[in-house]
Amino acid sequence: MKANMSGFDLRAIVGELSQYVGAYVKKSYMPHYEQIVLRINPKESNQFDLVIVRGSRVYTSNRDRPMPQTPPPFAMVLRKYLKNARMTAVRQLGFDRVLALEFDTKFGKMHLYVEVFREGNIILVDSEGIIIQPLTHAKYSGRVLKKGVEYSPPPAASDPHDFDEAALQEIFDNSDRDLVATLGGKANLGGTHANAVCSLAGYEPNLATSEVDVKKVHQALMQLLDGLASGAKGYVILKTDGEQSVEELQELANQQVDGAERDKFLQQYANEASPTLLPAHEGKAVIEFDNLCQAVDAWQGSHDAGALARREAEKLDIASPGRGFSTEVEKLERRQAQQEKALSGFAKKIEKQQMIGHTIQNNWTHVESLLAQIKESVEENGWKETQKMAKQIPWIVSMNPADRTFTTILPDDNGEPKGMQAMLRLDETVHQNAQNFFETARKQKAKTKGATDALEETNVYLKRAKKKEVKAKESGRLSKIKRSKRLWFENHRWSMTTGGHLLVGGKDAKGNDAIVKKHLSGSDMYLHADIHGAPSCSLRASQGFVIDEHRPGHIPNDIPTFKLVDKLEDEQINDDKLTEAATLALCWSRAWASGGGHGTVFAVKPAQVSKTAQTGEYVGKGAFIVRGQRQWFRDLDVRLGIGIIAINGVPLLMSGMPGMIRSMCPRYAILSPGISKKDKLANRIYKNTGISTDEILAVLPGSCDILEDEGIFTPPKNIIEEE
């Protein structure tokens, strides 16, 4: 199991999930478009999460994972129909990569089908077999997955468990591929397990099927299947990074214990998870688990638990190409690549259609004889009998009575049925059939002209965008970023303290309430300037920023990059960090507008902050009662710094302590209360940096005097020197 679970993996998962039949679904979540989480509550054990990653894997997990406050529509559908539902059965459809979960609900019996192939899908189906909602609408050959239609599973695949020697011999006799390809495709073993059977049988994978002893292959197959059936373990297979031997890696693996350190270790070295050890795993470092679910969770659980963070990143237009943030140049480059690929595909299709037409003409006699024979057989015996007889003819692939067509294999250079496939119309002549392919090629050429014009237009736009980007970089301006949603803390006053801790403060009464109710808990600290109307501030102990080691390509080198995390390594808030936060809380208050040079701030623990007043008293919106001993910070300087940083790939203007801003940001300014209006200052910053004025105004505390300026209000020194 490298990218996707195989039929063998899914069968092992079904066996492990079956022990939880009778458990109840507590809630359904969707932390990412690719992932569904069902919180399962068994009667005799602790609750756990059933994690379903679309098209990839299904497993159980007990990890802590953040969930969205507002569930997406598909999660709401699952909550409506599956809340408090009892799981009555878990099964695999034949040997296909389809998992079926059955539930007793207040709406009757429901089915949740998990398709673990291609792009994957998750489909909720009612007792009548009608689709209530698929995760993704899809249309395949012979079936449609959309709301309101009957669910049709994929065509049943062969089950290797049903093969005897005779069945295996028949597959070999009808195969023109080598041993591993035949076992992997026609015997439905897949590449990994097909190679395992070859190894167990003592045959080279590329050996012709006619050269093997079917008895030995069947024995090897049974040996593999017995091992998979009897094994109740899970294994994570490791790979070295070239700096250590397998023995050294195994020794490191044996030292790992459950937790964050093991997750980091597996992120670096884990290659796959398997329900059993295969011949290909010999000589490799391995970690053994009690079951496959545990192995998969160890291998991919840490990645899957961060699904919400990835979704938020994508919403902020900073994700992978086609789904998130892109500069104009990047978007045009992707468009250019797509158009070039399309043109290449058009050319290949035109060439193929023309080649088929010429091959039909060059083999006129053969095609004419084939058409005549099939037409005569249909007239005398009917389509049904003709289809039966056609199975014995190597030239015929399939027949379609409804369209009166059949697909044939054209002769190769040696006159053998090993050439290209072509669909021929029974009621048309050889010439007409050949012309059909030439006509398709002609129509494709017409499409190619439009695609060529579109590519030329893209090239023009791309050239302009590159010039514009170079000019912007030379001026020190940042690329404009279009975002569908801002980072949550941007709705408040915010900053970073030493250690990366996030400090947030309310902008108004509503914001003050939100800070205390949503963003103040545990080991956090509450801060408030000793001035009427000052904002409520929360210094987060766990949540904050760490250096982004994978610098986004669109961020200039002179801008430090960070990413928002929910758990910092150092969660301790000491007096130095509190002093920084207190100074910023003071700068965000009316102390700045009053022009005072110094002020006082207090800090308390979250438990000391309450909305509950004494009898007969009233606490207004945005106000709170603070009880108990306070920690005071007096004679604080009313000065702050502003600097440009990038968070989650988005360039932002951040306020902070002058010393920290000066040391962190190559482009910064130090401000004090003054007479320059902040809207005029915001315009200057916008013209020089490209950051929107709305974002700038949210950071500036009020009218200011500029004490120091390094590339904020004026171009950076390196640009001035170049000019």
Give keywords.
ibrinogen binding protein from staphylococcus aureus fold, alpha+beta, 11-stranded mixed sheet, 4 domains, globular, 723 residues, disordered C terminus
SSE diagram, text form:
Elements lengths: L6 H11 L6 E9 L2 E7 L6 E6 L3 E5 L11 H10 L3 E7 L5 E8 L2 E8 L5 E5 L5 E4 L3 E3 L2 E3 L19 H9 L5 H7 L4 H12 L12 H17 L3 E5 L7 H10 L4 H10 E5 L11 E4 L2 H14 L1 H9 L12 H35 L1 H27 L5 E5 L4 E5 L11 E5 L4 H46 L17 E4 L4 E5 L3 H10 L6 E5 L7 E11 L13 E5 L9 H13 L3 H4 L3 E7 L4 E2 L14 E2 L4 E7 L2 E8 L2 E7 L1 H7 L3 E9 L1 H12 L3 H7 L4 E7 L6 H6 L1
Parallel strand pairs: 22-27
Antiparallel strand pairs: 1-2, 2-3, 3-4, 5-6, 6-7, 7-8, 8-9, 10-11, 12-13, 12-14, 15-16, 16-17, 18-19, 19-21, 20-21, 20-23, 21-22, 23-26, 24-25, 27-28, 27-29, 29-30
Helix pairs in contact: 4-5, 5-6, 8-9, 11-13, 18-19
